[in-house]
Amino acid sequence: MIWVWVCSLAQLVQKFEAKHIESIVDRLSQKVAETAGGAAGSGGAAGKPAMIRQASSDNKDATTGEAKADIITDALKIIVTSVNDENCKNIASKLVKSLLVSLTQKKKPAAGSGSSEADVDLEMMCVEVMTSVLTRFGSALAADHENILTALLKMLEHPREGPRKQANLALAPLVMVLNNQLFEQLMSLVITQIEKSKKPEVYIQTVGIISRAAGVRVGAYLPQIIPKLSQYCKLDSKKSADENASTSE
């Protein structure tokens, strides 16, 4: 029944007035916020997001917490895809702000415990929806671009691979609408991090994504990018050669 309701949203939101769509978005955003508020530490029911705790305590509910999070994600993406252009700006901006709050207000895990699975699921969910919003309404969200960019760049340093990849994917629709100042800030940071980051491959992937999305805007930065890529390839080749030599001994 839940999936039937989600699939019906595509047809419903085309007929709803803006206030009705905003109400639905508010309700779904509250569910995202509940997930953020419930994520604390790792392990045990108390450390799980509200949706997962509810699913764990109700044996009659066959829908897992992870599946419920997927349903919320799909519902928000369907709304973003289906909403009329005349209702888009306020709804998109409101949704983005809610997603940014959920990303920045997670409870900190205990020292040394790292990111909990609940936190990672939440971050993936928020950035996945953010990607859909940016893909359709990116140009209408100019006032939010800087905050979105800051959040995505922070996620590129995430300890987990999944959120890093999701953040890179979200950058693609964002760079297509960034103003020159923010684009320059982004490229400067990415170029610097190729050399300084402990995971330079993340930022090399970022360069590829930006190049495909922004096209000629990247041309001015090639004299800075190419030497760093060449240096990384040489270091990587030397590392592989050393590992092979060590293995053969």
Structure description:
It is a single chain. The model is unreliable at 1-7, 9-17 and 39-63 (pLDDT under 50). This protein has helices at residues 2-12, 18-38, 50-57, 65-82, 88-104, 117-137, 145-155, 161-175, 180-196, 200-214, 222-248. It has a domain at 1-106 and 115-136. Helix content is 73%, strand content 0%. It is built from 11 helices and no strands. α2 (18-38) runs parallel beside α5 and α2 runs antiparallel to α6. It is globular, with a radius of gyration of 21 Å. The longest helix is centred in the last third of the chain and has 27 residues, at 222-248. It has 249 residues and is mainly alpha-helical.
Task: Provide key terms for this protein.
249 residues, 0% strand, mainly alpha, single chain
Q: Mind sketching the topology for me?
A:
Blueprint: H1 2-12, H2 18-38, H3 50-57, H4 65-82, H5 88-104, H6 117-137, H7 145-155, H8 161-175, H9 180-196, H10 200-214, H11 222-248
Helix pairs in contact: 1-4, 2-4, 2-5, 2-6, 3-4, 4-6, 5-6, 6-8, 7-8, 8-10, 9-10
Helix segment tally: 11
Low-confidence stretches: 1-7, 9-17, 39-63
Q: Label the overall shape.
A: globular
Strand content: under 5%
The counted number of beta strands is: 0
Helix content: over 70%
Radius of gyration using CA atoms only: 21 Å
Largest sheet: none
What is the CA-CA span between the terminal residues?
62 Å
Run of helices and strands? HHHHHHHHHHH
- Quote the average pLDDT: 74
